[in-house]
Specification:
Structural class: mainly beta
Largest sheet: 3 strands, antiparallel
Number of helices: 0
Length: 71
């Protein structure tokens, strides 16, 4: 999953960055610029998909949509 973090050490414009971590990890990250431990921002989960499971019209893809699965 992708988690968002904020480093507040950068004054009025805090640095926001994303880190890909396993779901069961501690969810800590260091700022890529200053190395200080950043604060996690809680938001809705964002899953990482190899390919989208939805068609452009919003319907679910079927096995027949994938060329490699065709005979």
């Amino acid at each position: 999953m992708i988690y968002k973090f904020k480093c507040g050490r950068h004054g009025e414009k805090p640095l926001y960055f994303e880190v890909k971590q396993p779901m069961l990890s501690e969810h800590t990250a260091k700022c890529p610029e200053c190395g200080v431990t950043a604060q996690r921002i809680y938001s809705k989960p964002q899953w990482i998909w190899a390919n989208s499971v939805y068609r452009p019209d919003g319907s679910l893809r079927q096995d027949s949509d994938y060329a490699m699965l065709k005979g």
